[in-house]
Amino acid sequence: MKVDIEEISSTKRALRIELPPQSLLDKLEAAYLHLAKNARLPGFRPGKVPRDVLRSRFKEEAKQEALQELVPESYSQALKEANLDPVNEPRLDEIVCEEGKPFSYRATFEVKPDLQLSGYTGIEITKEKVETTDAEVDRALEHLREQAAEYVPMDGWPGLQEDLLVVDYEGFAGGKPLKGVSGRNASILLGAHQFIPEFETQLHGLKKGEVKEFSLEFPTDYGRRELAGKRVLFRVTLKEVKKKRVPPLDNAFAQSAGECKDVPELKEKVKQDLLAHKEREQVGRLKSQILEKLRAAHPFDPPESLVDAELEAILTDLRRSVGGHKATSAQSEEEAMRTKAGELALKRVRNSLLLEAVAKQEGIVVSDEELHEEVESTAVALNQKPEAFRKLLEREGRIETIRMQLLERKALDLLYERANVVDGVNLVTLA
Fold first, then answer.
1. Counting C-beta atoms within 10 Å of the first and last residue's C-beta, which end of the chain has fewer, N or C?
2. Which residues contact 207 (CB under 8 A, 6 or more apart)?
3. Domain spans, the chain
4. Tens digit of each residue's pLDDT (9 = 90 or more) over 250-274
């Protein structure tokens, strides 16, 4: 086999692959033998169709079958000889596939750039002094109290904003019950807009045991098409009115919420938690500073296929995050979103390739034990069984993605450890 390498750019390569005529003839022979076993032609018994008849009737089928074996085999071997590792599927052209002639083709693909980095240790980053305020601590304590709030049944009280109502309801159209428009012991938090706003408005002021009938029109863009724009008569029975009861900030609350003996100890614990959170956020910002300076010092064009794949992943996440809202958007908004996602994709791919280069130059590797621990911790975070999660990753070919993410994280940790940290202004959140 003859292999010529063509360097199109820093990330694009082409292989011109040529095999002797006999290679194609051998594959064609195997293809005709296979076709002969399955060919069904009038006047011939199965498996007894003459070769010249097969050639005249199934020449193209035989050629395609031969190519399906010959191309992957030769391409894989050529990559090994050329010591190349593509990041995308090849584009084939200039194919010469004629009996009696050398079989040849050109395979074009992308590779990762060969990055040789310098000056990546001692990158200067600005670290701010992290502090917290009494106002922040107070807000955090209020949040804890809100989380611990309970809804207590209150007989004889009307339902008001932020009250939790327990209701039975049923919708009617033309005097007949509407399928799927009913509920028993349904909890509705007034002001939370869990249902159409007009429905909640009708419940304000009702007391336990009261029944109310009212009609309203569903919005024209309502999620269920059969209800969109439809006027429906509702019959609602209020079964319970529950008022929110927020626990007082006392020693009993400190013991239950933070396992602290008293309120001062709880406040100190909350303060330290806030400081730890701010410090973690600052580490993230400092690492982002490192990556920004690393990108600025080593400009390069990454493989387009990697950027495109990352772009589609970002867009998929964005569309999933707005799945509960209107799916349609103005073309200008879609284009703006795609442009912004494209910039982020380019930045992420550059970051990834730079960190991979740092890992290579520093001899950083990910052991099987580290990979196992990472998979286990990820599984726990996703509330999945580690062994089943690992099998899923292996089945979907994502286990190496986890290894690469861990490798990049180790490389970034090394850059952070070796960075030149200078002090900046205080990081204080004002009340």
1. C
2. 156, 157, 158, 159, 238, 241
3. 2-110, 150-245, 260-322+339-427
4. 999 999 988 899 999 999 999 999 9
Crossing angle between the packed helical segments 263-297 and 134-147, to the nearest 10 degrees: 110
Distance of CA 17 to the CA centre of its chain: 38
Cα 192 to Cα 151: distance, rounded to the nearest angstrom:
15
Domain 2-110 falls under CATH 3.60.20.40 = no
- Rounded to the nearest angstrom, the gap between the alpha carbon of residue 134 and the centroid of all alpha carbons in its chain is 37
What CATH class does 260-322+339-427 carry? mainly alpha
pTM: 0.76
pLDDT tens-digit readout, 118-156: 999 999 999 988 999 999 999 999 999 999 999 999 988
Amino acid (one-letter) located at 431: A
CATH class, range 150-245: alpha beta
Mean pLDDT across the stretch 219-229? Answer: 84
Separation CA 350–CA 296 (nearest Å): 11
State the chain's mean pLDDT as an integer: 88
Tokens of 29: 């022979």
